[in-house]
Amino acid sequence: MEDSMYGSSDEEYYNGAYDDDENDNEYDRDPEPEYDSDVSCGKAPSCRVIRKESLLAAQKEDLQRVVDLLSLKEHHARTLLIHYQWDVDKVFAVFVERGKEKLYAEAGVSLEEKDDQHPASEPSTEITCEICFEDFPAEETTMMDCNHRFCNDCWTEYFIVKINDGKSRRITCMAQKCKAICDEGKIRDLVTAKDPNLAEKFDRFILESYIEDNKRVKWCPSVPHCGNAIRVEDDEYCEVECACGKQFCFNCLCELHSPCSCVMWDLWLKKCDDEAPTVTWMSEKTKHCPKCHKIVEKDGGCNLVQCICGQPFCWLCGEATGLEHSWSSIQGHTCGRYKESHLKSADTIEDYWRLTHYYRRYKAHIDSLKIEASESKPKILDKVRSLEAKELQLKDFSWAMSGFDRLSLSRRAVACSYPFAYYYFGDLFANEITKEERQIKQNLFEDQQQQLETNIERLSMFLEELFANYPEDKLMETRMKIITLSTV
Q: CB 116: neighbour CB atoms within 10 A?
């Protein structure tokens, strides 16, 4: 077969549905994306990766917007932005709605800036510091924009304490009841004269405030830390990918968990921590016979088990069945859906059955995800390298790793769909939808869930094939199957 037969499909795949969500992979990822480039951070199109060396430029960009609009000094613009969590739009909105005076007063910016000069007529005039009550020449004192002047020694000791306490981003004036923010340039000059290392620490805190105080910018939670940050422009409730490859939820910094909300995911993790050991042991080792309700322990690999009372039943769902079965299924029986018939009368038993149903399937997909990452991915890379070493008409084999990336994302999504279903179709939203509406939505959800699971397993099967040894016509066929399933 000629490669041109598949060219349009490849182009549609890599520039279409796939790239909308995930335009980075091991083959086409830009090794050094800069802050001001057009490279997005993988999953969310309106986010950018800020590398450590680009952090200052990113901060300067926001500072300059405020400086230009309000005709401020840079340190006053930084004070405003730190107060409003580096939300430039919020600063502009407050300025328009409440005026410059309210804007400055709430942030601690002094409206009447004073020129820090010594009395021109009396250059040798001594000034009494109201902190230590000693007299100092004017040149050994410093006045802030709020017009409060103290000796340099008192200022310096005060700044040192604040910086060491981690409060260097908004250091207020020493004067009683004064809420004005001190000039960072004067802080830096005074501290540098006493302790240059501490001055560097102060500069680092000021710079990192762009990350720490900014709800639209967060450090990548990679371990060890890659040094990158992610900035989102529109929706902070999104999933992003750093240039280092780490994928995470921007809002809660946890691993990817859609379709679960952050609240659902937090509840699920806590429930798994509290009840997972018991649920895992009970679901793996024992089941109740659907006929006599005695506890049955599984001691073999077959999922069709038989109680001592003679009743055969499905190990996965606990439903009574016949004895006839094949290697892949029990005749006339499916158990992918959660059924209300499992439920017992007591609330605790009801929740146990629901939890074991959803947890067992969630855990199975998470375990598969881990195995595929540790075992399948290296095998696929080996197969790609083997194909690249051959003289084939087909030259581009990135479809294999792109298919694996899609498999990983999809498997994580279907795994997280089980805790989503546990909460959404449980008590969490019981007061928001009627029982009839919930049943309709649950049926539709489970139909889509089962279709996704089917395609995930098919994609996994094709990726496991030894396609590196296939003749070229069969290789092209497998390639199109992987691309098609990835798109689906």
A: 14
Q: Is residue 381's pLDDT more than 90?
A: yes
* Average pLDDT, integer, range 361-374: 91
Asked if residue 307 belongs to a domain, the reply is: yes
Phi and psi based region of residue 227 (left: phi greater than 0; alpha: psi -120 to 50; beta: remaining): left
- The DSSP bridge partners found for residue 312 are 306
- Our answer to whether residue 335 is catalytic in this structure is no
Of 140 and 316, the structure prediction assigns the larger pLDDT to 140
| 473: three-class secondary structure by DSSP | helix
Count up the domains in the chain and report the number: 2
Catalytic residue selected from 302, 314, 317, 335: 302
> Are 201 and 350 in a shared domain?
no
Which residues form the domain of 189? 125-213
- Looking at per-residue pLDDT, the higher value among 275 and 120 belongs to 275
- The answer to whether residue 369 is domain-embedded is yes
Best CA proximity match to 242, nearest among 265, 210, 258, 218: 218
Say if CB 176 and CB 197 are below 8 A apart: no
Domain annotation covers residue 143: yes
Residue 271 domain-assigned (yes or no): no
What element of type H or E holds 137? strand 135-137
CB 241 within 8 A of CB 247: yes
We report the CATH number of the domain holding residue 391 as 1.20.120.1750
Q: Are 65 and 92 in contact (CB under 8 A)?
A: no
| 158 and 295 inside one domain | no
For residue 317, which phi and psi values (nearest 5 degrees)? -115, -15
Phi and psi at 271, nearest 5°, equal -65, -40
Helix axis angle for 196-212 and 184-194, nearest 10°, is: 150
